[in-house]
């Protein structure tokens, strides 16, 4: 199933820069009807490549393809995430419901996969391009979640999801420090999209006020605005959809 927010992110990226090229990845390109329809509208500017976050070999293969066809990346967005799967993965409301399989799957998709993507795409990340003309650094943006903040955790629960996003935060922060020490022209940030009306959040929207439940279009617009305005001093920071920093 396609991530509708990611699909909208691809669309808005294409619309924001008429000369830019977007590379979208998914597990099953042949079944990605939304991306295929978009490809038909932008045949020269959109590429669709196969990538499975749970298979490092597919990440390596995609990085090789990107290098051969395009040579560089100016912006890398890791927008995938997993919260629940019917009969497989459920947010835990109590410690007694924590399962090893749920923890491992959440970590694999929410933390390990995105970091492996950065590892293999790192040599391709170069300054320039993007909606902001002639930017002097590349940008890596990982979609996290406010529930991944340890300092903001006042409710508990959701052990697998919370801890996997906290792991993503720590791994991204660590990478940002390494890039800075190496004087790499790369800025890494983490983004919280808010509570968005998607299949991922729908089973958990009961206690969310209408004012805090965002459309996919609004959330993507806000996140891309943050990416557009990012500065070198933002390297390693964690931002909410409204641009406010979130505590670790």
Going by helix content, strand content and strand pairing, the class is alpha/beta
Q: Which overall shape is indicated by the principal axes computed on the Cα atoms? A: globular
How many distinct helices?
Answer: 6
Percentage of residues in helical conformation: 25-40%
Distance separating the two termini: 31 Å
CATH class: Alpha Beta
Return the domain count: 1
Secondary structure tally: strands: 8
| CATH overall fold name | Rossmann fold
Largest sheet: 4 strands, parallel
Give structural notes.
The protein is α/β, with parallel strands linked by helices and 248 residues long. It has one domain: Rossmann fold. Helix content is 38%, strand content 14%. The protein has six helices and eight strands. The strands form three sheets. A four-stranded parallel beta sheet has the order 3-4-5-8, with helices on both faces. Helix 5 links the parallel strand 4 and strand 5. Helix 3 packs parallel to helix 4. The longest helix has 23 residues. The model has no long low-confidence stretch (mean pLDDT 90). InterPro entries: Fungal_SecMetab_SDRs (IPR051468), NAD(P)-bd_dom_sf (IPR036291), SDR_fam (IPR002347). GO terms for molecular function: oxidoreductase activity.
